[in-house]
TrEMBL record:
Protein name: Putative RNA-binding protein YlxR (DUF448 family)
Pfam families: YlxR
Organism: Amycolatopsis umgeniensis
Source superkingdom: Bacteria
Residue stretches making up the YlxR domain: 4-66
Length: 71
């Protein structure tokens, strides 16, 4: 199951996909489907899970999920 999930981390106010699952810091796991990302954003799950104040820019994660959907 873990192979089916993407790990994301917060860096400089942005969400970054951790491809190798090795970036330092707290990470959050996400199903690689746009609906799951949208639901997590609506629920403000990332700032809470990653313990960062304020909102996070998830544009990079959106782009990564689009590339996954195309392949």
């Amino acid at each position: 199951m873990i192979g089916e999930l993407l790990r994301v981390v917060a860096a400089d106010g942005r969400l970054i996909v951790d491809e190798r699952r090795r970036l330092p810091g707290r990470g959050a796991w996400l199903h690689p489907v746009p609906d799951c990302l949208a639901k997590a954003e609506r629920r403000r799950a990332f700032p809470r899970a990653l313990r960062v104040p304020g909102s996070l820019d998830a544009q990079g994660v959106h782009e990564r999920l689009e590339r996954l959907a195309e392949s």
